[in-house]
Amino acid sequence: MVQQQQQHRIYILQFRKGEPEQEVACKVSQPKGAGRRVMYYYQDYGSGGGKSGKQVQPRALGLRRFLAMLLLSFLCVGTLFVAPVSFLSFVHSDEGGAAAGAGTGAVATAAAARGAVSGPCSSVGNDSFCCDRTSERADICFAKGDLRMHSASASFQLVSAGNSTAAAEEEEERIRPYTRKWEANVMATIDEVRLRRVVPGDAARCDVRHDVPAVLFSTGGYTGNVYHEFNDGILPLFVTAHHLRRRVVLVILEYHDWWMTKYGDVVSQLSAFPPIDFTADRRVHCFPEVIAGLRIHGELSVDPARTPEGKSIGDFRRLLDDAYRGRIEFLERLERRTARKRLRLHRHRRGAVVPRAPPGPSHADDDRRPRPRLVIVSRTGSRVIENEADLAALAADVGFDVRVIRPDRTTELCKIYRELNASDAMIGVHGAAMTHFLFMRPGKVFIQVVPLGTDWAAGAYYGEPAARMGLRYVGYKISPEESSLSREYPTGDPVLTDPAGVAQRGWDVTKKVYLDRQNVRLDLARFREELVGAHRYLMAGGDGGGRRRPRAPE
């Protein structure tokens, strides 16, 4: 059975023939009567096209098929004698890795990329499963053999080669495939899935057979917060599945249509096949191998020493480039077409060719190079820059081409990526939106405004990962006078002078005081020094990345 790969791009809807291109938003169909909503996909199929698995259909065993199967059996036996080491293993530990490759009708494979592989599940033989629970962040299980997804019992069944009922009843593992193992409250919201051995007589009958592995993970928990969507989901998925070279089916717990709409382009770079909604899809999907859970390396990080083939955060950036290239080119075509229409309309109204505007004045020092582009990521609600307009004017005066973006949950991720990928510098106040530094190119500048009481989180969650990615990171720690809390609390109050001490009262106090009730009014004279330093660095062609020591308030 030959399984065809398919290229699929999500959230671009189909147009009728002859209909002009236009920008559209992805939609889901409204349910007709009972049932769940169904998302529409626009798919470009590769050679021949195909689905992720083929429906099982009873077929008579003819003489030709029997002879072909007999010949294939002899070939397989010969291969095992020549290469006795299992070529179907995809299991790897944090200490080593694997390189994926697949032949016609074969399971996607992975070979060790860095010397010997070690760990509790370093080798999983056929007809077995193993769970690695040594990480503080996440459990991960590996299974190999005749595996059948049975969502009705929230399990994957490993059909035993033997007939020992006692052995089957004793062998079972349970996992909640989410990467915040240490947070009991959130893990309690994640569905539990069982890996259990069953005898052939008790096994569910296959409805769809796949010849590639499955990776099971959850999009529950903190999904809805862009930081957690990348840190707990997308990056661990990259670490776990990228080496399989898209020859993998993604099985998703707590499936959300909007999540696939938002991250469909990225997901399609990791899997060539449509994802499976574990809960809603009641068909029995059968796989030769299953990875349940994801590996996570740290905050917004990919550690090359712990990934198959030594992949790094730079490889993840290249995956984002590939994921959004087609959509960005589409948007650019629309913009050029719109600009031409506006120009023709303007000329028609004026009745003459519109003269070109004279060139504007040159930048200070007669430097004719383009002005570095600076993007201010604006917030609403809390941690707002109250003098944001003045900040934008100051940055323009220093020599930046300033853009202000205000992303929200409805903003197409590709548009944020496009803006930041083309930028030279980004400014924003500490918060989940700072995750978008991942969209910047190495060597550019990331200035994070650090409000009172957020020093540790700002550095650990965004500053340090940004520096590891190769950005020039600047942490601008505000003074008490730059915080709106100075208007709420008297001078000398511990909230202003001892945020670390206040934080010891617990997370709820920190969140209520420093995250939910604090805005920022920048000291523009002081902040100007950071802008001037960033501008000089960029104009000098700085691309060394790294981290600057955060500037403390004076």
Walk me through the structure.
By secondary structure, this protein is of the alpha/beta class. Among the domains are: 128-313, no CATH class; 373-542, Rossmann fold. Helices cover 30% and strands 18% of the residues. It is built from 13 helices and 20 strands. Strands 3, 6, 7, 8, 9, 10, 11, 12, 13, 14 and 15 form an eleven-stranded mixed β-sheet that branches. A five-stranded parallel β-sheet has the order 17-16-18-19-20, sandwiched between helices. A two-stranded antiparallel sheet has the order 1-2. Strand 12, helix 4 (226-241) and strand 13 (249-253) form a beta-alpha-beta unit. Helix 7 (388-398) packs parallel to helix 13. The longest helix is centred in the middle third of the chain and has 38 residues, at 313-350. The chain is globular and about 85 Å long. The N and C termini lie far apart (70 Å). Mean pLDDT is 81; it is low at 1-50, 79-117, 362-366 and 549-554.
List keywords for this structure.
554 residues; alpha/beta; Rossmann fold; 13 helices; disordered N terminus; Glycosyltransferase_61
